[in-house]
Amino acid sequence: MKQHEHNLINTHSKSLLGFSLALTGATFFAELFGGMWANSVALVSDAGHMFMDLTALLFSLIAVKLAERPITDRRTFGLHRLEVFAAFLNGALVTAVAAWIVFESLQRLKTLPAVKTGPMLAIAFVGLAINLVVAWRLHDFAKKDMNIRGAFLHVASDALASIGVVTGGVLIHFTGAVVVDPLIGLFVAGIIVINAFRLLKDSIHILLEGVPKHIDLNDVIGAIRSVSGVDSVEDTHVWTICSHICTLSTHISVHAEKMSDQQKILRDINEVLRARFEISHSTIQIHSAGWKIAESASPIA
What we know:
mainly alpha; Alpha-Beta Plaits; three-stranded mixed beta sheet
């Protein structure tokens, strides 16, 4: 990707994320305090899920800003890994929030306190509308940027939770069955736990330098081996620095007659890695199959 195209994407990313962050933040506080006022644990639980969206958008914005920071001789990949640590802390914090929601919902199942359905429904509808607007704004750009894609998935899942809260408010309003409120709270807490688990799992996988989930290592090795001139591929490692920086190191053997084409072979390999696997950083060591045979045939002094 050309530098000016990359800069345009970063500028657009920051604009979209900033817009989404402002709307989501306002909705979070509205649902949190509105849920307390309406005495609705379902609405408070949706605020908890909105908080997860809020932090996901914030971390995505931070990641874009960090990507603009220059590298140093002490941090050759800059501060990109901070995104992963932040995501891990986010997952842990939201898991604690979900545990509180479950506890509160179970307590309310015993007492079934009254719920102000008017304020509950009004705020829930606003939350749902904002989720849909933010998801719509992020959708098209999510195809081009991994950070935007992650934020979009968070917002889309929160829209589902908001639909559950709206449905619960309607049922309570027309039937008076206040038991629906804590049940919706448990439902939303379940969605939060699922998303938090995925976030924790993905962040731990990156911290342990595992192979990215969108990559099959055997496919990578096969793609490198298919490049003209490559004889064998050994000692291949693929890992991620953060959600949008994928790296590779490998050791390849090249046919002796192709050694003069090393630069072309490297260019071809890197093009395949970028196009098929989104691997942007690679370290490739080359030796000749002919040299390997010659070395093995040399007498020992």
